[in-house]
Design a protein that fits this description.
about 350 residues; disordered C terminus; single chain; 18 strands
Length: about 350
């Protein structure tokens, strides 16, 4: 499509962060389709949640924070989280008339005329004065590369395409990754698999006691500092450690969470270490996380030499018209809500300036 339309603000992504930003735009007087547009490439509401595996029920979801202005109440904890949260997001979009356009693939954001940014998409091109990027990480699963990987005769999965534990019945499974997903997969797979092996690059850190507000602020501050320096962000979970709950304790006691150091190579029928140790495997499950989905921003040259985008609050330091929400320190459900509000506040100030767009920092 070659159609060109103008808006004050374009929001890319309609997950938690994008909907929070759209809510605050609406609340402060911006009209959808006239003043702002929300573009989402997913087939329906629900953000990344709609793609979660069926066995991840709502009762097992940790830290799902309600969107601003509308609580999620009465959800059945036994239902898949993908269904519960997709329905909640659907209701939210309708309640606040956010008019999300989907499925829309954004291919590039580049400099336009008269200080505007051009958002090129499968829905045409949008010329905008400000951009809120809320594309998350789900579309960029990280697959590490190891010698011999291409010769493995078994199957390889990433968390992004995890089909649920029944698919691994009777199989020998190597789970790679020391985060929450890795431990969840192991605990869920163990009753079905013929054998499980857990490998991580670093020894896992288990956190005793409650994760209070002070601990949360300290964790976010560590991630925020990396982003401020222009380094690729780490997840908040990577600096908080794994909560030592009853399920984890049982997994440790049963030997399911008996961690091995990272293997050195992959063979046709398993993995092996330099010291000669070998483990046979039918499946390798990579619970190795995700990277920010920001390749469409490449024409704006926002990346720093360290590989990340330097951000102050939510604002890209290189270009104050661009705000990243759900990126780095705001990549949590409560952080995404706060980031959406902060981005809208800054954008209102930016648009109120005489030229509409101040000089780049």
């Amino acid at each position: 499509m070659n159609e060109m339309r103008e808006v004050e603000v374009a929001v890319i992504g309609a997950g938690q962060a994008g909907l929070a930003a759209a809510y605050h735009l609406r609340r402060t007087g911006f009209e959808p389709e006239r003043d702002f547009v929300v573009l989402d490439h997913s087939p329906g509401p629900g953000g990344a949640w709609q793609f979660r595996w069926p066995s991840l029920t709502y009762g097992r979801v940790h830290g799902m924070h309600a969107l601003p202005g509308r609580e999620l109440t009465g959800a059945d904890p036994a239902r898949p989280s993908s269904e519960v949260i997709a329905e909640y997001f659907t209701d939210y979009e309708r309640a606040f008339d956010l008019r999300v356009r989907r499925p829309v693939d954004v291919t590039a954001v580049r400099e336009g005329a008269n200080g505007r940014l051009l958002v090129e998409s499968s829905d045409g091109t949008w010329a905008t004065k400000a951009l809120i990027n809320a594309t998350g990480t789900w579309d960029r699963p990280f697959w590490p590369r190891y010698p011999g990987q291409e010769y493995f005769r078994g199957r390889q999965f990433h968390t992004a395409r995890y089909p649920g534990p029944q698919a691994f019945a009777g199989l020998r499974v190597v789970v790679v990754g020391g985060g929450a997903s890795g431990t969840q997969h192991l605990l869920e797979l163990a009753p079905y698999a013929a054998a499980t092996t857990w490998v991580t690059r670093r020894p896992p850190v288990f956190r005793e006691g409650p994760f209070d507000e002070d601990a949360g602020r300290a964790a976010v501050a560590l991630v925020e500092e990396r982003v401020r320096q222009g380094l690729p962000p780490k997840s908040v979970v990577s600096v908080t450690g794994l909560p030592l709950n009853d399920a984890i304790r049982q997994g440790l006691a049963d030997g399911v969470l008996d961690r091995l150091p990272m293997f050195d190579r992959i063979t046709a029928d398993g993995v092996e270490w330099k010291d000669g140790r070998r483990v046979s495997a039918d499946v390798i499950l990579w619970a190795t996380g995700f990277r920010p989905a920001v390749d469409h921003l490449a024409p704006l040259r926002l990346r720093e030499p360290g590989g990340g985008i330097r951000v102050e609050g939510t604002r890209a330091v290189v270009d104050p018209r661009v705000h990243l929400v759900g990126y780095g320190p705001s990549a949590s459900t409560i952080g995404a809500n706060r980031a959406g509000r902060a981005a809208v506040r800054d954008i209102r100030r930016l648009l109120a300036e005489p030229a509409g767009v101040p000089a780049a920092a």
